[in-house]
Design brief:
The protein is α/β, with parallel strands linked by helices and 395 residues long. It has helices at residues 2-19, 24-27, 53-56, 61-76, 79-85, 93-108, 132-138, 151-154, 176-196, 202-213, 218-233, 252-261, 278-294, 333-341, and strands at 31-34, 41-43, 48-51, 266-271, 302-307, 315-317, 349-354, 369-375, 387-391. The chain folds into 2 domains: 2-177, no CATH class; 218-391, Rossmann fold. The chain is 41% helix and 11% strand. The structure holds zinc ion. Zinc ion (ZN) binds at residues 70, 74, 97, 101, 149, 153.
């Protein structure tokens, strides 16, 4: 049994992430648990996939991988919440799940051959490219066998669901706030993939654009990114299957145990060129220090470097309140970042605050995780290896 579940968390998940690289954050956030005998796979609203290893014993890896992608679709599109919103009752579940499945599979069929029992808009006598609510309202009853994709697909509790994560078992699944952050992460990965490679199914791209338009406070995103970065830097990452959800754990409580062992070395590089406003820079620095303080990192453990094009040498700043913002032309943050890498002890984490109008180092810095808080409405995109959060429209 354990072997079969391991096969799911490794081979099928890798198949899924290989075929849908932009869904990787969501796929690796899934927690795989033993499920209901006779029901191959279902998902709850805490991103936990319940698996019956016996039912899946003969199912090929790509079919299991497809199911993971499909169930992830229910979670990303928040079908549970949407079902509640339009009052889907227990009796309506079969019809709703068919409608929700059609919304998901409609996009998946562009890229691969669907399993024969997967519901498509065609099965409901509807055109492609509609929302689940529309298929639910106008679609005919599917003649396909009903598949219960779980609470994550329709919002109704299931007997095999485990207890929702609480203070005692917070590592046992994704909570509402984490789910919102994951959705935004995936949405931004989709838009990025579309920009660089193309080949994003139309409905998925539409979902991503709609999700990103829905504004989330950048402080929340920044906090989540820093905590994740800290936990990775501290070596708290365990990529082996059952503990993989730690990678996306963002509660400070989970990071703390490792921080007690060792405080990471952090440098903050500030873009002080003319295009940055004092107010926004001050706000960003205060926020970053507050977030780091919240996970036990003292102010004096953070080295601050201010940097603009005019400065020949990047300079150490003792007190952020004393920052003197200079005018001048463009910015070359490579000077400040370069100086940060020469600090002793060498930083393991570099956080850059900028409007993005700067050249960046060409390659990933050895042994250093780099983060950027991008300020302004349309900051240029830094290289892929830099983790970014956008503080839109607050400059
Ligand atoms: Zn489904």
């Amino acid at each position: 049994m354990t072997t079969d579940r391991t096969r799911l968390t490794s081979a099928a998940r890798l198949w899924a992430a290989h075929n849908y690289p932009y869904l990787a954050s969501a796929l690796f956030a899934l927690r795989i648990l033993p499920g209901e005998p006779g029901l191959e796979m279902s998902v709850d609203t805490n991103w936990r996939v319940y698996v019956d290893s016996n039912s899946l014993a003969e199912v090929p890896t790509d079919r299991v991988g497809f199911q993971l992608v499909h169930l992830t679709g229910h979670l990303l599109r928040d079908h549970a919440q949407r079902a509640a919103h339009i009052g889907v009752s227990e009796d309506d579940i079969s019809h709703w799940v068919a409608a929700a499945d059609a919304e998901i599979n409609d996009d998946l069929q562009d890229m691969l051959r669907l399993p024969p029992d997967a519901v498509t808009p065609n099965d409901l006598n509807c055109p492609d490219g509609k929302f689940a609510e529309e298929y639910y309202e106008y679609g005919s009853e599917s003649s396909q066998k009903f598949r219960d994709c779980g609470t994550g697909a329709h919002g109704h509790e299931r007997s095999w669901n485990q207890e929702a994560p609480n203070d005692a078992n917070k590592d046992e699944g994704v909570n509402v706030r984490e789910a919102e952050i994951l959705r935004r992460q995936v949405a931004s990965d989709i838009v990025e993939h579309h920009r660089q490679v193309g080949q994003i199914p139309e409905g998925l791209l539409r979902w991503a654009t709609m999700t990103l338009d829905h504004k989330v406070d950048w402080r929340t995103e920044l906090g989540s990114m820093l905590r994740r970065g800290l936990s990775e830097t501290m070596g708290a990452v365990d990529y082996s299957n059952s503990r993989i959800s730690r990678r996306i754990s963002i509660s400070p409580e989970i990071v703390l145990p490792s921080l007690r062992r060792r405080v990471p070395s952090i440098a903050l590089v500030l873009d002080t060129s003319a295009s940055m406003t004092d107010r926004m820079l001050g706000l960003a620095v205060t926020e970053i220090k507050g977030l780091l303080g919240g996970v036990g990192i003292q102010n004096d453990a953070i080295r601050v470097i201010s940097c603009d094009a005019a400065a020949e040498e990047a300079q150490m700043v003792r007190n952020v309140d004393d920052l003197l913002l200079k005018g001048g032309g463009g910015t070359d943050l490579r000077v400040g970042i370069g100086n940060a890498t020469k600090l002793l002890p060498r930083p393991e984490l570099i956080i850059v605050v900028t409007d993005g109008g700067t050249p960046w180092p060409e390659e990933r810095l050895q042994g250093i995780e780099m983060f950027a808080l991008l300020i302004g409405d349309n900051p240029p995109q830094p290289p892929n290896w830099i983790h970014c959060v956008r503080a839109k429209g607050e400059s």
